[in-house]
Amino acid sequence: MTKYTVKDIARNSGGFAMLAVDQREAMRLMFAAAGMSTPIKDEVLTDFKVNAAKILTPYASGVLVDQQFCYDEIIKQKAVDKNCALIVAADDFIPGNGIPVDKVRIDKNVNAAQVKKDGAKALKLLVLWRQDEDPNERLDMVKEFNKICHDAGLVSIIEPVVRPPRTGDKFDREKAIIDAAKELGDSGADLYKVEMPLFGKGQSNDLLKASQKLNEHINMPWVILSSGVDANLFARSVRIAMRAGASGFLAGRAVWASVIGLPDTELMLKDISAPRLQHLGTIVDEMMSSR
């Protein structure tokens, strides 16, 4: 059986320049916020995701897709470039308390063997981290997810994202990101996808120190995500995180969010998003070559 490793989702430099289009209800909200008439139909999300895959994956080492809105069409239309690894989201988002993702569980409808047969090389799991919830539940879920991936010969990517506690305790996001890394940074996954400290804002030195703290606790290759980071600050965030020990990024919003709701979506993806992704990939290669 073929067993994929992180090298199979990396660039030739060994770094990761990966695109995410697995946003679900959050993307629907983005279209609504951009002024499109509601309700936003599922087809709007599917079309955007498939177009993004077709246009942007020639510049990405991997692309993260969701089964709910785009997987079938992306496979059917062969939308992913042959040099870009397919990554499938294996998380089931449970809405509640007024937000699209209040809880997460492993999506048992994602068949690891089948997606591998379809060409996938990795699965991804979102892990919501709250300081007042049982860490053993999170660790058990990650352990089960890793086993699903590794039994199928797929790469295991975990994405711990911190949330305020349910009990109304004081929430320190920066401390929570570090605490999540302490808990999950040696959990047996192959790649750790992490939020950028300080939302990528502030002085470079502060960002570097915070990223170095993360690096101390993550015992696997790690990449940053772009949610919450201004698109204009994301390239700097990638450089700083990589100086601290990161190996690249797995990002969606910083690449394509600014074109949502614009006319001529395909043209906007070509004119705006593709150069942005190319630039980010160049940064990854530069930073890897300087090691």
UniProtKB/TrEMBL annotation:
Protein keywords: Carbohydrate metabolism, Lyase, Schiff base
Listed Pfam families: DeoC
GO biological process, one term: 6-sulfoquinovose(1-) catabolic process
Example GO molecular function: 6-deoxy-6-sulfofructose-1-phosphate aldolase activity
Keyword Chaperone among UniProt keywords: no
Family: Belongs to the aldolase LacD family.
Protein name: Aldolase
Organism: Gilliamella apicola
Phylogenetic classification of the source organism: Bacteria, Pseudomonadati, Pseudomonadota, Gammaproteobacteria, Orbales
